[in-house]
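User: Show me an example of a complex going from sequences to structure tokens.

Assistant: Sure. Here are the input components:
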Amino acid sequence: MRAEAEILAVRQAGVSLAGREILHDVDFALEPGEFCGLIGTNGSGKTTLLRAILGFVPLSRGSVTIAGGSRLASVGYVPQKFVLDPYIPMRARDLVALGLDGHRLGFPIPSKGRRQAVDETLTAVDATRFADQRIGDLSGGEQQRVVLAHALIRHPRLLLLDEPLASLDIRSVAEIVALLRRVSCEYRVTVLLAGHDMNPLLPAMERIVYLANGRAASGRVDAVVRTEVLSELYGYHIDVIRVYGRILVIPVGTEEGATAAIERDPVHVAQVP
Amino acid sequence: MIRVTSLLSILFEPGFFTSEPVRTAVVIGGGAAIVSGVVGVFTVIRGQSFAGHALADVSSAGGAASFLLGINPLLGFLIMGVIGASSMELVRVDRARERDLVTGVVLGAGLGLTALLLFLDVTSSSTTGAAVTVMFGSMFAIPASIIPLAEGVGFGAVLMVALLYRPLLLSSVDPDLAAVRGVPVRLVGLLHLIVLALAVALSAITVGAILSTALLIGPAAIALQIAKRPGWAVLLAAEIGVAATWGGILVAYDSYSWTGGHGWPVSFCVVTLIFLAYLVAGWPGRGRARRTPRIDSRRVQRAA
């Protein structure tokens, strides 16, 4: 693997919050254009890892390297549970435009180029039809597309999404995954998407970073989501079962081991819709 | 023509346009309303209305001290307001509830100091009416000499908001999105609090420290349910604030004729007009009625 071809390299990274070690020895790299799922149960440190990559949380050890100069120029971010207050006086297109120049001082100067960039990005995420509505009046899925456009408008090389599929209905989940897959090709952007269920991502995912116990296993899905790899990661026996194209991850092992496992990690079964 | 003049004479009691106190009140009140409306929009979006009220209470200590020291009351409000804003921001908090606690504690300390200073005002320098002036304002008693300072502060505050417009807007919608865009979110937050302190000090000199919240939050709240774009909301809030302030001054001036020469406080008239405007604009009722059918029609379209 050529080091200069990596968009994101996380090396032996550790993060401690309030004296507790959340992540230790997380090690993986993403190549240009890869669509990568960051999978783990609630509390496994997905959000912390994304925030560490963004520089919001300091690393206690290790390093995070993002190719292409400064972190701000090359990263787009869609935060978790993005809920906008209904009274925010902003149309969808206003928020997208702030993705272009929200850091600049003074009032925005309307220009053809600015409007065109906003329109193009709104089209890319299928948000044109509600572009002129108040963002607070939009549904959760629609707001998410607007925030996605906000993150994409500067053509970042790396796009981080924190649980974008949580709280969406099944149909919207499939829609958003397909949309993200398409956008990642059109914008040639590397995607790192955090989620607790890998199944909706299986059609799109080229790489998986599986977080458990504060550590990560990374590689192709077939190489990582295996009984041996996950058992090693969790530190107790895990069964990986494939049924009808879905993957179930079930903690079992010895009877005592299973009880301990379930206590530590209550029934971590990939949800079957 | 005669009818128009007679209508005007009913609206405007004689002497309104020539009165020196009215002119001062119109200038200072208008300036305070513009600044409060502009800043208020961001304060409401950020969910910091409580901080605005706390800053007003803390700045009242400065107003009370100014009577004791014999300095310009606006200066007193300003100094304490900025001190309050800085102390609220210096305490690093990560959770919204923690921020509320810090705000509440600072508010309490400020008001306690006000209680002492107002007590001293009355006992040692026998300034009668200081408490009412500091807390509820006496617009027709504002000395014209503070106009230059007030206009300077107002101009500075509006200029600061204009400069910070985009970073402030983005960090008010979502601090994380702003941070990713390279906005120094904490610095912008501190600057917002300082501009908020300036707005509150200007309002405190007009409608009084306690009622300054009404001028800060009311017009912004009305504008936010009407305007669809941020720029329009800011302009609209400023206009509503100025209209309510000038209208309140007029009603208070006219009230001298029907109250037998005592007159009602300007603050009461201003705040009442804002409240009535808010009721007419109808926060919950109209907002909900407007939204629900739109969502329904969208669902129907999808199903079809």
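The lines above are the inputs; the final block is the predicted structure for all two components together. The first helix of chain B runs from residue 2 to 11.
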